[in-house]
Amino acid sequence: MKKQFDLQLIAVFGGGLLFNFLFWMERLALNLLLYSLFIFIVLFADKVMPKSKRMFFAAGSNLLAALLVVYNQSDLTIISYYFSLCIFIGFVHMQQLRSIFTALLAAFLQLFTGPINLVKKLMSVKVGSFSLKPILRPIKYIIIPIIVLIFFSILYSIANPVFAKYLELISTNIGNFISSIFTFIFGDLSVLRFMHIVLGILLTAGIIIKFKDDGLEKAELTLEEKMIRKKRNAKKFSFGYELTAIFAGKLMKKNMALKTENIIGIISFAALNLLILSLNIIDVSTLWLGNASSIQTVNYSAELHEGTNALIMSIVLAMLVIIYFFSGNLNFFSKNKTIRILAYVWIFQNAFLVSSVLLRDYNYVAMHGLTYKRIGVLVFLILCTIGLITVYIKVAQQKTLFFLFKTNGFVWYCLLLVAGFVNWDVFIVNYNINNRNNIALDLDHLLDMSDKTLPLLDKNRELLKKYVSKSSYANRYVYTEVDTDTTAMAQVKTPIDTAKLNLENKIRQMKAFDDDLDERIEQFNKQYTKTSWLSWNYRDWQTREYYIKSSQISYNNPN
What is the pTM of this model? Predict the structure, then answer.
């Protein structure tokens, strides 16, 4: 067993050095894939660790997320990678877990306790008669007081500016002193580089060294997906039961709890159905059956956000109310047919509300083009639809709250990975340019996209120049009368001079657009040449290849 510990320690410190080599002053791209492969080799080579289907699923999804970072490097793919890595950590070390959410919680425990587990591991190592235990034991008496001291120092500095000034002075002097000693001992190795290595060691320790407590696994194992009828304890009532008793009075004391809950549920669902029905009727009359002339005058921005907010409240309320009424023995009540039908009707009405917001989003995109927020609304609608479907299954098949968390977590995670296949920046710019005749093309929005869109912008440079007068470039060159001579002012106001000034302003605006785009292209090319192969990703390489070919074409065809 000691040999296994030694191998883990070698992997931890080796992983810290590898982490520093892969990520120091590099972009997140190919290096993430290499780090994941290192983690896979270490953990799958561990013969003591059992291998389950969940472990292979988590490893496969993390590998997919890493490949998507290499292929489609973006904020979304990087976020997907971090989520998949945490889920992998959770399922590897607590392989009896069944839910994505509990796996994330397990990963948090793993990473948070990584430094402690590493110290414990080091304390157990012996080389002959030499042991690190006497050296490392005092650390546990120092770490917690230091954390508490730093925490309260930050609070006091926020509350008192004078204290903050002295604290900054003291911390700066201490930092300079430590930095000078560090430089004297380690030479050219900077403090930041050293801290980066330490970060890599702690992160690798959190991933590799198992957190011993299995309380989270035991707690989740007690949760079932299928509801079981339980006999109510006459001496112990839930908060919901007590709340109902306030309104039901003595009825609750006459062994009529289920009947009372059923009646209250019927009244609640009937009222809620009428409430959302009024909202859906308004949507049918104004949105679904509205004439073309009225659609053109609709403020889709306001209606889309208002509809989304209403949807959020409705879906959350629907789930909470259904979970409340169908979380206990009411599922097994012989006369619950009416409340079930009302719950199904309410789920259907919420689904119709989803379709109404979807239509608003579609109309908004058709008039103003694609943006990340409008795509985000669509994603949210998909998640809401999945939530409603799982709530329906819960009621129809007598499932538990754990079933909702497990199913929705898995589906949401899969959607997050699938979304990484799309190059969204290029997709948005390409869609808006291709539909420029039907939408109000927002040039400023297109220019805010990442460098992956530069070839597309460059190809459509002349086309986009037509829209500079409707962008922020129009504010850069606006004629203002500075000449106080009345004759000159009169001359300026002639139609010929006004047209000439407008033409000159437009030429300047187009030149400013050209200059800005050329500057971005130049910056991208400079940055690309500075990065190493560790930062390689397909989209940047594709963009770089486009400009290499463009420069060759320009050189071969100077005219």
Answer: 0.85
